[in-house]
Amino acid sequence: YVCKRAPLVAYEAMECHGGNGYVDDSPMARLFRQAPLNAIWEGSGNVICLDILRALRKEPETAAALLAELQRASELLMGSSSAVVGKGYLKTMERIQVALSDPTDSFGR
């Protein structure tokens, strides 16, 4: 998600800087040029999802480990000041739990 959003955010930031953002003397021009490369360096979100599905297919018990890790992250979020983010995260957690409850269905999507 971050790799797909970075070029848009860099573009908006460059607009905020005005003409100074386009000058090679500022770091903004470099950030704008390099933002699309993050998907190549970090791997695309789709490839990462396929890796997760492959791991779940090979070892279904990894679903429990994934859910435990996501649960720990949700507890941290709910303890923070960003309760709105925490509620959205919990809704997403519920959808993930439903999807992982029937692995054969999740792999077909």
Write the layout of secondary structure elements.
Elements: H1 2-17, H2 27-34, H3 38-42, H4 45-58, H5 62-79, H6 83-101, H7 103-108
Helix pairs in contact: 1-2, 5-6
Q: State mean pLDDT (0 to 100 scale).
A: 75
Query: What structural category arises from helix and sheet content?
Result: mainly alpha
Total beta-strand segments: 0
Low-pLDDT parts are none
Largest pleated sheet: none
| Element order: H for helix, E for strand | HHHHHHH
What is the share of helical residues?
over 70%
| Strand-residue proportion | under 5%
Gap between N and C termini: 19 Å
Silhouette: elongated
Return Rg in Å: 19 Å
Helix count equals 7
What does this structure look like?
79% of the residues lie in helices and 0% in strands. With 109 residues, it is mostly helical. The mean pLDDT is 75. Helix 1 packs antiparallel against helix 2 and helix 5 packs antiparallel against helix 6.
Notable characteristics:
109 residues, mainly alpha, 7 helices, elongated
Provide a concise account of the structure shown.
Helices cover 79% and strands 0% of the residues.
